[in-house]
């Protein structure tokens, strides 16, 4: 796969999208913005990262021996890819795996810090299995010998599957058992773990905490089964940092004290990403050792840190540092073609350019050991190659692209006869993309303004000048700056503000300083600007006539009158400054073009920032661009490899993004089909009764198109009358959707065909009606109006009715739509079905509607208002009739006159309004739809114009367009069987397709398709269950929290050994995203900062000591808070049997032993500088144990307060209801409402605002129950 071509394609499409929404009037600003875009400010050069080659070690068989592994391991850890006649079919280990196993065999704790995909799990699985088998052969009792703790369930799930590969089918005498205990198991599975302790237990840190604290029989038995624990494994230990890390460190000490054997302490094993530090390898290892020692509570030396050992793929005797005599020739040859095709890996390994690539972009020698090199951008690498080869940078860049693509292909795909499946070396291309965000300019005169994307207070090139954020009028592109005008005793200056940062009071005054907020508009210097601040320059709707007949601003608008100011570059007002207009308050009017706003939308929606796209829109466009490239006929990618994983940091966003993506694809396909249908209709246009058939034909949703049936039919094998009936249903549905498309697009980032100027509606005989003077004789203003004025008014009226869906047609009839939706439900696939709860029906246009006070919200949906204050009324106020403007009463007469004339000409028809009175609807047969003869206001949106035109062409030519594109979320919120189905759809191998066939009935129930699924939107906790061996693209919706997370997610691509593309979107307003956008190598290199873990915090340590004391007491608290308290006694104390249990001498004695053991382990970490609260193990133990019973009782105080407040609210409500009933019915009010408050579940359920248990510092869940682990 040519990842460079793919990357260029998606960047071109994203660039077109990102620049499609913001108009810029100022040629000066536009020129500078264009230059900034051309400089790839928001999509810098991609970063190249070579996949490492790991030094090999021995096989599992080679480690079997008296002091090594037991022979059973050779039977368990087999290589499924080994040749049939091979003498050694066991796994071939890497050097670091062999070193780790050796440390474990010596009984030493250790940490493995190697890259993603390096096989870290085998470093602990093999020695654990070895120890388990040896113990069982020695006749030891059944128990859990290893606990592996993961930071998230997905890792545990993934590792469970990995264990199954080796341990599921065990044919040897001593089977090794394993189980997962993460909270996902049902009661039967938990009982099985309790009664038959697994040799290996996979869990997470939270579940381990619950097991060690709760006192149910199940929990006690599971922990008791771990007695004499031999292994404690912390996977991804670099993720444990801060308070969270300290909690895990305390948990490790508690586990070792509770389950470990002092005579044979458990071996502690950790896996970690590389940690950043100064110095050489020994210094880096020491940092990891210190972190691991602090977490485990045992000494781990730097000699117990296992690092990766890399090897060269090219000739190890040559390197770029030693000089390459034939480098220039190799560069020229690679740039001119593909000299590497047909060659073996061994031949290419001696090529100078291959050697240069590996030694400059791959491992570098550090302390005589290969270490991963820092990643470089493509441009930086080309410049470096140019300096060392003497060839031009452009030549070097082309040579690098060609060479890397050839190196990443398997030998046999390069055309080498008898070649292997192995490439010379694969690579990843990392592309970071940023949203444009905001633009900032100075207030210099036009022609000398500074323009930047970097938000600062002052211009870095001239600190005396202030920078102001610029937002642009969506209609004309005039720049406006949100500001606060500060008047300090007559000295005025402008300070920038956030666009939606609005003070509570319009004007703020303190000690002579008056602040007013609003917008500052520099006065344009072009001749088209005609605003002078006169009353007549404002919108007609803002004006009123005085008694003398003069126009003036209405009182409600006088506060927003624009003020002419002269402002200097430092923001102060002065005579020699730039002329500008200050508009107080919200942005309601653009002096440059006259656009005005009367709704309550936010200013950020009225004005456009430089980048209008959000994270969801950008993600949808990028992923669609990737899939379009993959499915292009020029790119010969196997169908089931045209896929990608998309990551987001929470599961809600995954579902949101999947919906956004699918909706975009559906709308794009529908609009493309509409455009194709209208185009084929030619100059005559498309009639209303032809619309459904024409769109259906373009989509291929007809009986004759057998191959397209899977796109829209639930049962593609339908025959005969049933098939014809369903064909009619989809046609009616498409007709309905066509009319819905008449509405103006409400999303700025997805304009419809009419807004883009691609199609237009034409009204039959409109010109004849406008010239028919007799039709308007009884309406003075219309009689006086010219034919052109009447024509314009008629078009406004008919457009408002059409876009408001006031059309008399079956496709918008409410009852018929309901029937249509019902018929579609079982026959038509999503997204082509209609949502019965969200469909739109035709309202009635009413010139004289009831007042809004007389209407309910539901009734309001039934009408379209045509009163003088409505949308059409405001438009008519801005028009002239015979050179005169209409008053409110005259507008009603105009609307009435136009409607009656349109009715007589068959353009409209009078109907009875469902809310009473007369109404009107358009006659659909009077409208034709054709390609637009004129450009629309949104004509400068080339992206969507090109997109819809491209889809229309593909459909007209019978192409597949974007059929088959689909995205689904893959998160913990998705049901287990549905997740399994989606994983099968994503993999789509032979077994997967069979599974989907077997699950056909379940698929119908879930309304899930059985086709190949090209996109999964994953939360980071769920993606690990997906087989990613055949995937070469990963997308990240946001920058992951740490470089280790990035490496883990990015590592899902390119596992098959070929080139991979990793795309990361960085939101403009996210500080985290922007930090790493400016420093992409810091994220790509996968190096994390050492976590900070402080164990001297008194509250932290005490909370864990309390947990140990509570576990030792044996008090089995109920999951319901109220069941632990005596609700019949004032103060609601602990129930007597609980109090007696925790305050008994036995509890004190047992608790003291547990507390002292843990405290002793913590004290070892204090060293010579213990915290002030620590006065000795015995003293602190006695203090904790003595106070513990009362501390436990006090834990429920917060809940008691909330309960008391709830009771008071119930009583107050009961009294209020009683008074109301006494006043109305004279009947007593019974306190039935109080009966539902015996438990606080309902009071706590809303919002999940349960109290925090001070005793154990964990939250009480929102349903009023104590945590399940108490």
UniProtKB/TrEMBL annotation:
| Domain annotation Helicase C-terminal: ranges | 946-1101
Q: Which GO terms describe its molecular function?
A: 3'-5' DNA helicase activity; ATP binding; nucleic acid binding
Which BP terms from GO are recorded? interstrand cross-link repair; nucleotide-excision repair
- Record keywords: Lipid biosynthesis included? no
Q: What CDD domains is this protein classified in?
A: DEXHc_Hrq1-like
Ordered alphabetically, the record's keywords are: ATP-binding, Helicase, Hydrolase, Nucleotide-binding, Plasmid
Boundaries of every Helicase ATP-binding domain copy = 101-293
User: Does the keyword section mention tRNA processing?
Assistant: no
UniProt-listed Gene3D superfamilies: P-loop containing nucleotide triphosphate hydrolases (3.40.50.300)
Checking PANTHER family in the record gives:
ATP-DEPENDENT HELICASE HRQ1
Q: What is the protein name for this chain? A: DEAD/DEAH box helicase
């Amino acid at each position: 796969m040519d990842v460079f071509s793919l990357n260029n394609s998606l960047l071109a499409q994203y660039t077109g999208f990102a620049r499609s929404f913001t108009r810029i009037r100022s040629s000066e600003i536009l020129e500078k913005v264009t230059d900034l875009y051309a400089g790839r400010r928001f999509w810098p050069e991609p970063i190249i990262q070579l996949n490492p080659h790991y030094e090999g070690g021995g096989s599992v068989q080679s480690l079997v021996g008296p002091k090594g592994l037991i022979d059973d391991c050779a039977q368990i850890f087999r290589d499924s890819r080994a040749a049939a006649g091979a003498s050694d079919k066991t796994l071939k280990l890497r050097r670091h795996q062999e070193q780790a196993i050796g440390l474990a065999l010596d009984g030493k704790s250790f940490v493995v810090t190697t890259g993603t995909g390096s096989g870290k799990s085998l470093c602990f699985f093999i020695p654990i299995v070895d120890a388990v088998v040896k113990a069982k052969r020695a006749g030891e009792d059944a128990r859990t010998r290893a606990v592996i703790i993961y930071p998230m369930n997905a890792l545990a799930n993934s590792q469970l599957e990995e264990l199954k590969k080796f341990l599921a089918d065990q044919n040897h005498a001593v089977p090794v058992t394993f189980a997962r205990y993460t909270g996902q198991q049902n009661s039967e599975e938990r009982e099985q773990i309790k009664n038959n302790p697994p040799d290996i237990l996979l869990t997470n840190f939270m579940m381990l905490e619950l097991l060690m604290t709760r006192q149910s029989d199940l929990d006690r038995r599971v922990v008791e089964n771990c007695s004499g624990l031999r292994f404690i494994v912390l996977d991804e230990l670099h993720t444990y940092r801060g308070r969270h890390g300290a909690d895990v460190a305390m948990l490790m000490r508690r586990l070792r004290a509770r389950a470990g054997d002092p005579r044979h302490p458990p071996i502690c094993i950790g896996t970690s990403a590389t940690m950043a530090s100064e110095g050489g390898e020994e210094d880096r290892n020491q940092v990891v050792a210190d972190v691991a020692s602090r977490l485990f509570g045992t000494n781990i030396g730097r000699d117990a840190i296992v690092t990766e050992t890399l090897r060269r793929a090219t000739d190890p005797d040559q390197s770029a540092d030693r000089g390459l005599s034939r480098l220039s020739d190799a560069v020229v040859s690679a740039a001119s073609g593909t000299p590497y095709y047909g060659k073996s890996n061994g031949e290419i390994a001696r090529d100078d350019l291959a050697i240069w690539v590996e030694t400059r972009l791959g491992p570098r020698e550090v302390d005589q050991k290969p270490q991963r090199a820092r990643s470089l951008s493509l441009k930086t690498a080309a410049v470096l190659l140019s300096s060392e080869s003497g060839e031009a940078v452009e030549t070097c860049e082309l040579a690098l692209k060609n060479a890397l693509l050839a190196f990443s292909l398997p030998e046999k795909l390069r055309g080498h006869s008898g070649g292997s499946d192995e490439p010379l070396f694969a690579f990843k291309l990392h592309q970071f993309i940023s949203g444009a965000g905001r633009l900032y300019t100075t207030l210099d005169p036009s022609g000398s303004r500074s323009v930047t994307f970097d938000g600062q207070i002052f211009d870095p090139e001239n600190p005396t000048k202030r920078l102001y954020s610029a937002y642009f009028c969506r209609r004309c592109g005039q720049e406006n700056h949100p500001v606060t005008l500060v008047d300090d005793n007559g000295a005025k200056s402008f300070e920038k503000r956030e666009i939606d940062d609005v003070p509570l009071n319009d004007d703020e005054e303190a000690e002579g300083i008056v602040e007013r907020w609003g917008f500052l508009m520099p006065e344009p210097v072009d001749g088209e600007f005609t605003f002078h601040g006169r009353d007549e320059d404002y919108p007609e709707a803002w004006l009123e006539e005085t008694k003398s007949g003069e126009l003036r601003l209405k009182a409600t608008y006088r506060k927003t009158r624009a003020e002419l100011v002269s402002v200097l570059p430092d923001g102060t007002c002065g005579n020699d400054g730039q002329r500008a207009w200050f508009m107080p308050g919200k942005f309601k009017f653009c002096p440059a073009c006259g656009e005005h706003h009367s709704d309550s939308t936010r200013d950020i929606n009225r004005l456009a920032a430089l980048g209008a796209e959000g994270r969801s829109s950008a993600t949808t466009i990028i992923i669609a661009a990737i899939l379009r490239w993959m499915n292009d006929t020029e790119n010969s990618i196997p169908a089931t490899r045209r896929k990608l994983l998309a990551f987001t940091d929470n599961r809600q966003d995954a579902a949101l993004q999947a919906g956004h993506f699918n909706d975009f694809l559906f709308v794009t396909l529908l609009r493309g089909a509409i455009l194709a249908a209208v185009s084929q209709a030619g100059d005559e246009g498309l009639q209303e009764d032809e619309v459904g058939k024409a769109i259906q034909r373009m989509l291929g949703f007809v009986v004759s198109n057998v191959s397209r049936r899977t796109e829209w039919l639930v049962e593609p094998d339908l025959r005969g009358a049933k098939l014809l009936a369903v064909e009619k249903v989809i046609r009616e549905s498409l007709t309905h959707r066509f009319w819905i498309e008449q509405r103006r697009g409400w999303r700025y980032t997805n304009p419809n065909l009419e807004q883009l100027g691609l199609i237009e509606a034409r009204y039959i005989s409109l010109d004849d009606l406008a010239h028919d003077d007799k039709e308007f004789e009884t309406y003075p203003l219309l009689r006086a109006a010219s034919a052109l004025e009447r024509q314009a008014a008629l078009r406004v009226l008919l457009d408002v009715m059409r876009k408001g869906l006031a059309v008399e047609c079956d496709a918008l009839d409410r009852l018929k739509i309901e029937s249509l939706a019902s018929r579609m439900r079982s026959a038509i696939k999503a997204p082509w079905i209609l949502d019965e709860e969200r469909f739109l029906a035709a309202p009635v246009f009413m010139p004289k509607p009831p007042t809004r006070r007389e209407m309910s919200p539901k009734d309001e949906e039934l009408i379209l208002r045509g009163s003088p204050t409505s949308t059409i009324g405001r438009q008519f106020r801005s028009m002239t009739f015979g050179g005169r403007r209409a008053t409110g009463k005259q507008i009603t007469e105009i609307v009435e006159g136009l409607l009656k004339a349109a009715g007589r000409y068959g353009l409209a028809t009078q109907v009875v309004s469902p809310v009473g009175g007369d109404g009107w609807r358009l006659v659909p047969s009077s409208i034709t739809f054709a390609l637009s003869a004129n450009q629309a206001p949104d004509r400068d949106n080339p992206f969507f114009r090109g997109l819809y035109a491209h889809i229309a062409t593909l459909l007209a030519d019978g192409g597949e367009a974007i059929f088959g594109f689909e995205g689904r979320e893959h998160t913990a919120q998705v049901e287990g069987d549905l997740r399994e189905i989606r994983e099968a759809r994503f993999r789509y191998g032979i077994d997967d397709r069979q599974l989907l066939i077997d699950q056909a009935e379940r698929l119908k129930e879930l309304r899930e398709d059985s086709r190949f699924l090209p996109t999964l939107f994953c939360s980071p906790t769920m993606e690990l269950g997906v087989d990613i061996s055949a995937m070469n693209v990963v997308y990240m919706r946001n920058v992951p929290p740490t470089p280790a997370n990035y490496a883990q997610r990015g590592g899902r691509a390119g596992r098959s050994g070929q080139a991979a593309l990793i795309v990361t979107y960085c939101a403009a307003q996210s500080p985290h995203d922007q930090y790493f956008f400016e420093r992409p190598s810091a994220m790509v290199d996968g190096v994390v900062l050492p976590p900070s873990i402080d164990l001297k915090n008194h509250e932290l340590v005490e909370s864990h000591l309390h947990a140990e004391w509570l576990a030792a007491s044996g008090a089995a608290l109920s999951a319901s808070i109220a069941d632990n308290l005596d609700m019949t006694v004032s103060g609601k104390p602990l129930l007597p049997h609980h109090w007696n249990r925790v305050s008994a001498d036995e509890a004190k004695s047992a608790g003291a032993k547990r507390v002292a053991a843990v405290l002793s382990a913590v004290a070892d970490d204090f060293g010579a500088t213990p915290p002030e609260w620590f006065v000795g193990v015995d003293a602190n133990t006695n203090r904790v144990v003595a106070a513990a019973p009362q501390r436990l009782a006090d834990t429920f105080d917060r809940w008691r307060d909330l309960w008391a407040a709830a009771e008071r609210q119930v009583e107050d409500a009961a009294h209020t209801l009683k008074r109301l009933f006494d006043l109305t019915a004279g009947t007593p009010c019974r306190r039935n409402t109080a009966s539902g408050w015996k438990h606080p579940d309902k009071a706590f359920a809303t919002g999940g605002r349960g109290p925090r248990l001070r005793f154990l510092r964990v939250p009480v869940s929102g349903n009023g129950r104590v945590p399940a682990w108490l």
